[in-house]
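Tetratricopeptide TPR_1 repeat-containing protein: structure tokens wanted.
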Amino acid sequence: MEKQQDILGYVGLGISAVGAIASIATANVAFASAGLTVGVGCNVFSRKQQYEGLVNAYNQQQETINELTQKIESNHVELNQTLMDYKADLGTSMERLQHSIQELLNSQKADIAQEIKRLDLQHQELNNVVSNLKEVENLSQELRNNADSADFFYQRGVGYEKLGNITGAIEDYTEAIKRDGNMAKAYHKRGVLYLDSNMKQKAVDDLRKAALLYFEQGDIDSYHQAREMSRNIHDLKVEANGKATEMVVGSELFS
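Answer:
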């Protein structure tokens, strides 16, 4: 009987121990569940903050992208305007350059044409000089064979005058007059050369003689030319008191 009671006592103690262990396990489970709940809540809060941070970062990036897009568009407009201005300036510069080149070409063409004309005149003058020299030489040869020819002296005088040899021309006109005192054209030519040499009185005398001979020979046109030329020759007349007055040397020759 006592053994049964002892066994029952041990069984009761075992059951009590099991109950205590179960109670402790239950308490641990409850505590663990509470910790899990707190951890989950913290994790959710952290994820929310991360999400909000990502959203803010995205928004900032989007704003940055928008600003960059606006700047690019603004720069694009400015670049287009700059390009248009550059094209306009380039077009104007090209027009000015073409205009300047055309003006330069026209000027050079005009200068070349003028130079060609000048060279042609020089060539013609040179040909005339050569021709006159040949004529003078031929007349000189003729005069060696016929020294009494007034006409040869007159023609050679004309040749000397064309060559600018005024002294030689006056001498030959004088020789022609010596051989033919009625050669009006020799007086006329010599009178003009005297006038060019500022020998006005001699010029008037020769022109008067030429006019008279022209009139006698019926050459009225040449008469008027010589007459008018002599009437228009001016000179300074010095009076006895030393006062100089201008006068027309030939004004009374044909009155």
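The radius of gyration is 67 Å. The chain has two domains: 63-149, 150-248.

Cheers.
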